Each structure stands twice: as C-alpha cells, then as structure tokens.
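Memo to structure team: turn this sequence into structure tokens by end of day. - J.P.
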Amino acid sequence: MWIKRIGMLDGGPRAWRRTLALTLASAGLFTVLVVLWLSVSTRAAILNQQLDALEAQRAALEGEITEIQEHIGDATSPQVIEQRMRAAGFEEPADVRFLLAPTQAATMTTTTTTPQTTPQTEPGPGAAAGGGR
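Reply from structure team:
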C-alpha cells in the first residue's frame, strides 16, 4: 500500500485519522474560499456591466436633454414666434394703447403710442458715385 511507503501509518491509526481529518478540513476550507472568491468576482463583473449600461443610458439621456433644450430654444426664439403668429393670421397693431390706472387717483388716463419704425431713406445722388465724405 502506498500509505505505508510514505510513512503515514508510522504513528498508528490515530495519526492517520488526524492527518486525514486535517487534509479534509484544509480541502473544505480551500473549496469554501474558492467559492467565495468566485462569488465576489462574479458579482463584481455583474455590477461592472450594470454600471457600463447605466453610463451609456446616462450619456444617451444627456444627448436627448441637449436636443430638447435646443428645440425649446429654437421654438421660443422671437423670430420663430413672430413667424408662427403671422402664419396664424395675427398682425402687428397699428397703434398701441395703454391704460394707466393709478392706485390712489380717481381719474384714469390713456396714452397712445405708435410702433417705432426705422425710416427708410434712399441714397442721395452722390452716394452711388462714391462721392461721400
């Protein structure tokens, strides 16, 4: 028998049993440690994949938010609002009237203003020939 050749039975049956018990306990402990290590490694890999997925989702959402903010900025610009207003049939009023209502006075006054327009002037005869200053 190979156990006799390596000298395991020299101390009697008790030594053999003790050696076998320590070997089995060591193997069991090693197995438990390997299972724990694999469990932790697997969990770390799963969490890493979830983190990567969440980071990709966050980047996509940030892109969507940027696009929506640009769309809102374009839709609420004064030029676009004026175009939509004209397309809906609204026109700029010829004059604007404001009603001023003072809180303590019993009389009411009204003021009339006209919209500010830029006068369009035609260039003079010297402007076309380059005769300015």
